[in-house]
Fold each of these.
Amino acid sequence: MSIDDDTQWLEWVTKQFESIAGEDKEIDLEEFKTALKVKESFFAERFFALFDSDGSGTISLDELLKALNLLIHGDETDKLRFLFQVYDVDGSGSIDPDELRTVLKSCLKESAISLPEEKLDDLTLALFESADKDNSGSITFEELREELERFPEVMENLTISAANWLKPPTAERKNHTPRYLTPAYWHNNRSKLLFMGGYLCLNTLLFTLAALRHTPLGGWVMVAKGCGQCLNFNCTFLGVLMLRRCLTWLRATWVAKVFPLDQNVIFHQLVGYVVGALSAVHTGAHVGNFVRLTQTRDRPALWEYLFTTRPGIGWVHGSASITGIALQLLICVMLVCSSTFVRKSGHFEVFYWTHLSYISIWALLVLHGPNFWKWFVVPGFLFVVEKTIGIAVSRIGGLYIVEINLLPSKVTHLVIKRPQFFHYKPGDYVYLNIPAIAKYEWHPFTISSAPEQQDTIWLHIRSRGQWTNRLYEYVRWLEPLSQEPRQLMRNLRKQRYHKWTQGHLFRSSGSEASVATSKDETIELTSYKAARYPDPEPADITVTRRDEEESLHAREVSAKLSENHRVCNIKCYIDGPYGTPTRRIFTSEHAVLVGAGIGITPFASILQSIMYRYRMRKPNDPRCGYSWGESLKDDEMKLRKVDFIWINRDQKSFEWFVSLLTKLEMDQADEEPEGRFLEMHMYMTAALSKNDMKAIGLQMALDLLAKKEKKDSITGLRTRTQPGRPDWSKVFHKMAEENKGKVQVFFCGSPALAKVVKAHCEHFNFRFFKENF
């Protein structure tokens, strides 16, 4: 910082201090905790003790400025010395295991990570053994410095993030070129922009031609007729944008390369607002014309023009005014109830039922305008055909939910018996109706099972609104039909069996077999006849201690699963499937899948299907030489690399999807020379980053233990969970350097995050697709 910057920073800190400190100009421990907003009081107490240089029990402005200067402007040694003092709780000049365990436990709470005590002991031991170079039983400052040097990324910006309230506000460098005017934006959105330009030109042309035809009737009539002609087109176009079956079919044709079919929902919303604006202007212009007419002698009164058929305006018994007022009210109600606030605040049913008024609107439009039926006849016919097909398909045959699994984060996993002729693509979605929950309500959900799964369809539903919460509560109190073996339990046991057999090498001599493991693991405990294995003769199998631990863990998981499983026979209906932008994934060369929270659901199906096709593309399994059959053609699978990024706020949100990700990691356990085909990136936003002093020890311990156990302590995956949010610039820069082909990013998550990801995609010239339905 320059002298001027230091002066401004001092003024800023002084103001912040005065706003917190009382009349005594001192900050006590409670005020300090409140200001830092730390979750765990351990760090607040340690920071306070180190800031309070005179031991008075309060911090003065001078003490605070001195400490902050060290943390913000000090060199690496100053910051490391402060970090060492935080860990050295008793001030002995060294860190013993108990002190390290206490600090790591506080780090876990600060980062909202919950681990068992045994895992905390493992983390403490891993970090302590790595840092205690001389095996003296304690860690000195020099040993801590040497250990931190192994993590260079930590030292780049080591500070206390909770002290940001006392940092000077940084002046953001403004980009003088608006994002919408940059060449990258126009290149990546050219089809959308061309479509919008054509849409605007068409509306302008329709308005102008209609207005010019009514020039003799005055300005009010010209505006009303111009808006009316635009309404004829837009009210019809609203229905065209919701022809889901037609759009799904068109996505497989050349039309998808010319028109932005993937943006149909966004355009539907935009056209809806246009209809609202046009209808308001149309109504206002007619009212203005009626006011002008009433000023003429022997003309009906204004209320008669608006609420009666006496003036004879309209092609059906003079009903134009009455139907126009009804239309205006219905359109206003529909627009209000379609707002994001209503849909996202747990009142989806309000949006759903008011949206059904489109039937009444179309009927009134036929009565209101003499030319609307000409615009509507063909799209209306297609709409009726689509609805008829949807009703027929959804009602043919009895569909039943045969199994339900309650997962963490209030996620309900439905297993539906798959109809014989139900064909879909990865990432497709369906509309689901469960009469037991709501007889007439249909809600869209992405199919989370792969198309290659023949017998059942999976849906993962997060409890957010009224309907999804009712479903979750209904399932919670649902009595199981029977205690017969459950399919998900069988699948779990089957996966564990395959995992066990793939991880061991059998040596057979006659009818005897033994397990070959490393020397420290081969502990013969007991033998039993493996009658269930496909050997000509039952074989003796040596059981290791690890096998017993896995068996115990499997029993614990089975007990937990049995509490959350329901075998049932619940009637349901599905309408679909309908396509999404994710159908483009298999024609990509380098696909990047970005999911946030429950937004991972579409990628559950896609990842399973990708790995299935990946195996089909390989002639034999490298581990056992098993042939998968015919190789997949290149035009069916162009993917050369897949990056999967999953962002969650807390640890619990990872739990319900981990089993599938574990299986995907096992599918490519033998890494290829050029790198893994599927690479996973996990981020936990609630966890503090490695640069924060309150988390540096924990993140180092997690890294060390992950390398030792070859799995992440938070998720159990081989992929290490990264704390904080992704640095999109670094992530995308690394992917661009891999040169695996043209990168396409597929996103499903919150709109706010979508804007951030899309902006970075435009910077790197990546194509961006957002899941919409």
Amino acid sequence: MPMEPDSGISPPRNHPQLSWVNLSRNLILAYQSFGVVYGDLSTSPLYVYRSIFIGKLQNHRNEDAIFGAFSLIFWTLTVLPLLKYVFILLSADDNGEGGTFALYSLLCRHAKFSLLPNQQAADEELSAYKYGPSRQASSSLPLRRFLEKHKKSRTALLIVVLLGACMVIGDGVITPAISVLSSVSGLQLNEHKLTDGEVLLLTCVILVGLFALQHCGTHKVAFMFAPIVIIWLISIFVIGLYNTIYWNPKIVRAISPHYIIKFFSETGKDGWISLGGVLLSITGTEAMFADLGHFTALSIRLAFAFVVYPCLVVQYMGQAAFLSKNIPSIPNSFYDSIPEIVFWPVFVIATLAAIVGSQAIITATFSIIKQCHALGCFPRVKIVHTSKHIYGQIYIPEINWILMILTLAIAIGFRDTTLIGNAYGLACMTVMFITTCLTALVIIFVWQRSILLAAAFLLFFGSIEGVYLSSAFIKVPQGGWVSLVLSFIFMVIMFIWHYGTRKKYNFDLHNKVPLKWLLGLGPSLGIVRVPGIGLIYSELATGVPAIFSHFVTNLPAFHNVLVFVCVKSVPVPYVSSEERFLIGRICPRPYRMYRCIVRYGYKDIQRDDGDFENQLIQSIAEFIQMEAVEPQLSSSESASFDGRMAVISTRTIESSASLMVCEQEDFGASNSIQSSKSLTLQSLRSAYDDENPQVRRRQVRFQLPPNLGVDPLVREELLDLIEAKEAGVAYIMGHSYVKARRSSSYLKKLVIDIGYSFLRKNCRGPAVALNIPHISLIEVGMTYYV
């Protein structure tokens, strides 16, 4: 469950008992973080030295080169994970959330960088929106104005964020392959040696099992994850200490940066190319920041600084000490350095730790894809909630099986951890470099520090990561191309979906129904108004969508009460249930037309608890009451007749006396609330409820309190609302066909008519994604020429 926002700077604690409670809570979270955050990072010793000394560095396999390699690993671990992430980046959280999307969300709120189409001033009133300092430093204003003014710069920023997301998805494909293959390869070194084919078969069996169990959710085995990683870390620490003392205690001297200079002076260009292997020692570091939402900054700091960092340093030191006296063992450095007596226990723990590390990145991939969808950059997919207790634990079936096929293809296609490692290193370092660039912008626009400080941060960390990245790019022909191809494929999907969605939204925006036309029709809209509520879904947060004019001109009757519903994402991680609903009125009171905006954060999960209709009716009733008391909410004084919106809190609803709610115990066909006067429709609804027992919609009856002292017009409106609810609720959506105009370029026609059309046909329908019961759904066909 997401914890309280933790900016990483703990407030002073005066009360000793309170301080102890806070510390004990963080220690428990630190323990839990081992299984979720550090599985990937802690299994790197399985393949780092092998990756460093493969290729052109084979000519430099001597003690000095091994000392230099260890020195590089030590300082890389110290500067990037410890200094950059633990001491700096964990403070750049967004209401306790981390990752590239959290940084982008912070930037969108402190400057107008967002490309989300239907943003409103009311969104800035959200409590989570105001996170961070409110003052604006004058030194950053020219840069901010430049970025806000040029749409291309904002688009470039979004592309950079999406590239980071695509690289994380690439990690989700590569990590299971390299982790499991590296751990299982230990079976080739004992007395009963397995062939390459047998090792590959066992790897594939483990990978298929790992992905097949994803639907269970991590919470069912999560209690085992932390102990596995802790036992693994203790094991590699003890083995590293033993090897250091037994083989070559002089390795301690290699902590000095002098050995790095010596390493490069001897190896030259070959040493620079080997950095692609060194950076594998920090793969998985991004998880410390990305998974911040499930823990606190302090708990992750404690776990890394006092357990993970020392264990990894001692293990790499021990391996280097062993290799300095056993140079031929470099290709299998980890398993050869294990004393024979403990080989099998360590092999089992290594395999389990590899599975845990893979599990963490797969879960992170699901989360990233959900966040991309919230930004309007990924097609709608089925999201399954795997835990009732842990918020944010999700499973996406389609993505899971795609990841499995790609992972198996990489494992079978390469069969070599070094080639897979080249792809892995490139993906991880790209994400780190993007995070550094975004953090530099956060320092300027969110933390309100000087541009010089941000430039110093970018220059120091960016130059180090840039050197590693350049080394990783050299290895593109030797497997690194996999990361680029995977990222390119996902980027194309994201771009096509985002482009098509934006074009569709702009069409809706420019073809809104003029309110003057509606007002000219009168309260009846020129048609018969029949009992019932019509919920008209649209992406527009203002105005009336063009789809409504199709109804009015082509149908002889329409519902008595109309509600225009807009479900949208806002650039905050979570929107509290108290702030979720925005209610307003369209046209004067006799029209009985309302607007409801339902807001979700980029990490929020839209649960179908079957209570949306009832919450909506109560919210509208509360708005009608508020409007009578607060005239400024009324649209009658507004020339546009599209009135101001009001946030209707669920707490207000619960304490309100607007409507009395009576629960209905009988859910069958004999239900006293008739969804329709038609017996046929009643029997259909009964059959639908029997087929969908998992969504048992709460059946309630609303009544006006007998002692409600309100204006007669308000009472009449509330009674109309209750009667309409009793008559039934219909959900109305546009079934849109998006096509490029004839005058469009060939490329645009290719993107819209083929790419976007294909994605729309093969993703989940909007009605399913919004949990709309199909028995109550009315769809209207409409062609968009964009």
Amino acid sequence: MLSAKEFKTTTITEGKGKCGFDISGNKALVAWNQCLREYDLIEHKKTAETVLESNMLALAIHPLNSQVFAIGDMRVDTYDDIQMTAPSLIVTLTGKAIEIKYNKNGKIMGIASEENSLILNRDTKISKCKPGHDGMILSCAFDPKDRFVCSIGCDGCLIVYQLSQVPQLLQRYTISKQVSPDAFQKLQSDFHPSGNSFWIAGKINAQYIITQDEPQDLQQQYQILHQSEICIIRWIHNNCVGSCSLDGEIKLWNFKSFTDLSLHWYFNIKCTPLYMKIIQNLFYLFDCNGNIIETTLDPPQQEVESIYKDKNIAFRDLLNQKVKKQNNQRIEEEQLGDENVEENIDDLNGFIGGNEMEKKQKQNMDSGMQDVLRPGETLPSRGRQYLCYNTVGTIILCKNTNMIEFEFFDSTFYKKFKISNSQRYAIGTLNYRGCVLASKGPNDLDEQGYLVGDGKSIVYFQQFIGDVDDFEFSLPEEEGVELVTIGNDWLAIMSDHAICRVISFCGLEILEFNTNRAIVSMCSYEHLLCLVFHDTSPMLNQQVLRGRIYDIDLQKQIEEFDIFLTPFSSLSWIGYSDEGLLSIQDSKGSIRIYQNNKWIEVYHNSRYWLYGIQDYKLCLLKTDQPLASMKQEMIQQSFEQQFVCFSQDEKLIANYRQFLTQLIILNHELYRWNEFGKYYYARNDDKQNDILLRYTQNLYDSNKMEETQKLLRKFRVDLFKQILNESKDKAIEFFRCHIKDEYDMNSIISLLELQKEKSTNNKELQKLLTHIKLLQRQQIIKQQQNFGIDKKPQSPKRQGFGLQKQNDQVNMNQIKSILEHREQQQQQHQQQQQHIQQYQVQSQRVETQQEDDEFNPFAKSANKKQSSIFDIGEKRKPTQTFGTQNIKKKN
């Protein structure tokens, strides 16, 4: 429980009694004794003053525009300046205005007066709430959700009306006996911010409550306690309510439920308060002596803020739990004997584990599971919204004109165009084949939450280049579209029932399956479809996601993997590059690619927004969230893979970063030929009709592969030279761990021999050269054993090449014999293959008497020797990874 240590009191009126008062921002208005005064709450001084025609006590400032205020006596007017030069008449009354109130957005004004009906002003239209009270009205209050309005009268009754064009009476409650107008302050009221309950100031130890669940009952609340009668009750936010009593006691309460309120903060002003208002952490109170009291306070934190507010608090809590656990174990071990230690540790672990489980459960409830993510979609801005933003172009939804605009970055590919949005499309995507638009159907709600349309999701497809006509179809009833994507000759739709439908470009469904998981996002490339879904509930504000890849041609799942995100982040983008490289970006700005069953971080910057990858370069926008109403600067960024390095040499670091980038490119190009090479020759033969040729026309051929390998060899040799300048021991370890290729080994040995000739100190270089040659021999033997050439069991002398005596047993004659044996096996195998091929060719000609089919490197025909795009210089297996090449015979 806290108390006010310091507060500032400023006298703003000379008289005592009733006044009109309101605060907005840093300005306060006071109407008293035919005078209107304006005060600056920062400088604590009067800034303006105006003489009134009569003593006006009803005053209210517009909640959204502090320059506009309403004031009234026998009539109510609005003004936009303190000098009151241009009045705008609202209504003329038959009695004095007692209270004026605005609703939350300032569109509705309520006027309580000496008349028996509450007056509402909405868009300059006046309506009266009938039936009314049996006397004057003392106060009124609006529901935060603009569903109800309440009025309290001198008859001691509370009347609840429904807010509509014509207010309708919902319920009448009798609070107390007939109330004197002089005591109207005792019946001030306020809605809970959620709108689920209505609170009225009442007796010393009781307040009246009306709940939405039981509107017929008027309950009493006994948790808010004061020494005298309560005159003001105000809600600050969902879990904090303030109360004032006639004796000047001010209290703030931490509200958890109707039966669980605890005192959080209090102080006493020693006089009756008239108005109370709290703006952020500033507390303002106006008392009956004409003083405004200001102090600072810390309201109780909301539940969302109190549980693991950010990652620092989460880490600190976990660390504290760990330290507590260790300290308690140490103390228990010192105080108790060995017999009781284990039992006490188990109890302590159970206690700590229970607390951790409870915190984790609260954390999971707090963080929530990530909603559906549509890659390339942005927030609306000034009536415009990107439905899709990728390397092909953009789809812009124009709500003001009810049109959808298509723009393309390559103007030679397709011209921009527009279509009418008569079906209320709100989801879209595009690639080089075409575009897909979809409406939300049963999830298409207006601002008031009402369903728009017939509740069916409409899907529209348009092909950019081809003979397929545009078509549209609808999903089954009560099933809405969540995600859409396009492949090479199909489109996929994910519904809110977790059902994925794959539709061919002719408009027929070819595949349907259920994921049984909460889907997050979806993307596609060629014949691959990637789905991202929740694996478990979020832990410590971090989403736990997994991905699945489906082969639509084979109609089966081919891979499942984890989606790795930065701690305390969520997925913000996912998609394939133009080369088929699966990539993601999280909310912390980390960009990762998926290769060889692992995620590799290639860039990190939270101020850039990723929309695609082209030619192994990131396509970024210089903003964290693009807006369709503004143009963003587009940039391309190379991969910048993060790694740990012992040296601070910038050249070495830059060299190794380029090496890692080229290694990623080479590995992916090998994968591309295995996965997408089957489209290459077919599309080259039909360049005019196959628009997806651009996906495969940049495939690396044998020359390009060899150039990339040569570049990698150059990087390796340069790295060896740079590390050699730092330390010879580290250079030896680099050779042992990173140099696996025969060409790299020979290049490094030639480099050392050249340095040996130039250097005067030959002993150290000779020792290093001998060690390197020894490592080269070890690598050759290991590679031959891995290829299955040397199947004989190893003798004890050949184990452990680190000993000098055993190294003498490894000589060049043994290596030559191994290579000669391997060449003989290869020659015999080739001769057998040639005989088999000749026989098959002759038999095929006799049977068919037709010409041979056109050569296809990916067709496994029996009449020709297999050829592969991976034959670079010398023959090796297509699936062989970089760095494992066949060993040439040494001269």
